[in-house]
Prior knowledge:
Layout: E1 3-6, H1 10-19, H2 36-43, H3 50-58, E2 88-94, H4 102-115, H5 122-127, E3 128-134, H6 140-148, E4 153-158, E5 181-186, H7 188-193, H8 199-210
Parallel strand pairs: 2-3, 3-4
Antiparallel strand pairs: 1-2, 4-5
Helix pairs in contact: 4-6
Amino acid sequence: MDLYGKWNLNFFYQTHLKHYSPKQKISTKSLLNRAVEAMNHELDPSKQSSTSQTLLDSESSSSSHVPGLKSSSGKRTKKLISLENDINALVQCKHVANQISAQTIRELSGIYNFHVPDQNFKNSILKNFIFLVSTGPLTPQATVQLNLTKIPIVFVTVKLLRFPVEEDEVYDFRKWRGGELTGVYYNKVVGDLVDGFDMKLVLNVILKGCSK
């Protein structure tokens, strides 16, 4: 594992609030169903739009606007997760001459199992995403393997870093070129977890900015 840090999904949640429609259906597996930020938004009248207020008014007093947080008895049944502080990002970097193979994707499962040992506890899967960052694309077989994998994997492609022309500037990273984001692909496990975040919309904007 090359990097370990946090992934602030609250950024995407704020985009979700701007584009939210009462007709929008969100997967029951989505992190929005357990988000502290989503619960706080619904409890703070100053942050509620007329749309969300209408939705709240239509809910019974024994249920939350955020699906899955309360049972019919009104008791909370699932532990809340902070989109800003609780989501872990495990990053593996690969510099390849050609393409990422299916074997590399299979190896990610072993890496994930080592760093996230308590996977029987469902919150472990919800809070730990693995990112594979590469200079090359996936082979067709690797794409199939990624889609079949039961852990949340995000595949990211970037341009190869280029050293500065002047030899004495090699150690000054500000003089390097490359590293721009060129593509993002994630499997269904991730798709279900980030459903409703408008992530594809935001990523498309970022990708267009990187391509200029």
